[in-house]
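User: Here's a chain of 335 residues. Predict its fold as tokens.
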Amino acid sequence: MVLFSCGTKTKEPAGGGKKRPAPKVDGFVIKTEAFSETIEVPGSVVANEVTEIHPEVSGRIVSLNVREGQYVGSGAVLAKIYDGDLQAQLRKLQSQLNTARLNENRAAQLLKIQGISKEEYDGTLLNVRNIEADMAIIRTDISRTVVRTPFSGKMGLKGISPGAYVTPASVIATINQTSTLKLDFSVPEKYTSRIYNGQIVTFTTDGNDREYAARVAATESNINETNRSLTIRGIVNGGTAGLVPGSFAKVKVQFSPKSNAIFVPTNAIVPTAKGKQVILAVDSIAVFNNVETGIRDSSRIEILSGLKSGDTVLVSGIMATKPNDKIAIGRIVNQ
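Assistant: Prediction complete.
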């Protein structure tokens, strides 16, 4: 005997009748904070004044008084060029001047008694004036044979020896005025509006652990088109012991603090072809929002626009989240 059942089998809905719950993700609540940005750029220590010392005329060095590595005053004599020929010309002109003055005196006496015309007297006077002018020229040439320091400072190494024949192209020595030192450095174009005269920067040099300070005194009149940076010059404040002109410097520039800066963890940023985005949690819905970023460090990145205080951004499950997905905040990482 074969028995058959009269019961009917109920068909279960697809998916077992269970709705998939929203995935849990970690969130980061946006809060503003005070922040002062600091950048580090390369620079150079430079002397207040520096110049190569050249002779004004050609000739043989008969005296050399370059004190290498020593401090000298302004106008100190460094070298003397042979001027024997000029001295001879000066003596010759002096003799001519003495004779011309005698002739001028005689002509003046004759003019008083109308022995000569006024025109003849003027000729003798003109001769005196011409000789005096020639002597002034020779004296100027003689003074140019003496090489002096243009300002006080520290002498470098001499580039010539006594007896050498020099020309205006010859370098006798270099002098640096180190009583005041300057600091030259450059900042990227985007920071130019945040640099101002009187701003204090700090710097260090290789082989010296001391930190120095400098006050911004001037900026270049234009931005360098090659590297898009602005050259800045500062005056070193306080002691300059240990600093040598030409030294490489690591310059730290600290800008005025922002009172409402916004930072998010770097893993909250979603790179796109058109920029950067973050995922906002809005009423348990994932909303992709464009942002503009600023500076960053190893764990955080600044948001310049696109977020406000109180917003919640996702910091986990980002790769699996799509626009308008249902989400559930499981944990706030900054609370």
